[in-house]
Specification:
globular, 5-stranded parallel beta sheet, 122 residues, alpha/beta
Length: 122
């Protein structure tokens, strides 16, 4: 059985903590990527890890490289559209999407994915 898929809405998760991310969006996305690589997915969640982790970045956060344990996907258009596509493509496989965006949550839950908020990440 394939590992559960964890899709992280980078812009939304980074933006949930007022730590100056707006000054260096790419740097903030890199810090999130590194935290995900080090700690993995949620300690408590709907699926048992380890997860296959995908971090979706967009806009000024583009250019963040993948690292072992975290694949970074750059949205050429809307990050939400790419996240919804990843959730749809995971059909039949456990998929957890981390975002606080209500509209995106509705879209991905229609594909069978489960959602969690940014605070679910370690």
């Amino acid at each position: 059985m394939r590992r559960p898929l964890l899709v992280v809405d980078g812009a939304n998760v980074v933006g949930s903590v007022p730590d100056g991310w707006w000054k260096d969006r790419r740097g903030a996305a890199e810090r999130l990527r590194d935290r995900l690589a080090e700690r993995g997915g949620p300690e408590e969640g709907p699926f048992t890890g380890p997860y296959e982790i995908v971090l979706v970045v967009e806009g000024r956060a583009r250019g963040v490289a993948s690292v072992p344990g975290v694949r970074v996907e750059e949205a050429t258009g809307s990050g939400d559209d790419l996240i919804a596509e990843l959730a749809r493509d995971a059909a039949g496989r456990p998929c957890l999407v981390v975002t606080a965006d209500r509209q995106l949550r509705r879209r991905v839950e229609e594909t069978g994915a489960v959602c969690a908020g940014p605070r679910s990440l370690p």
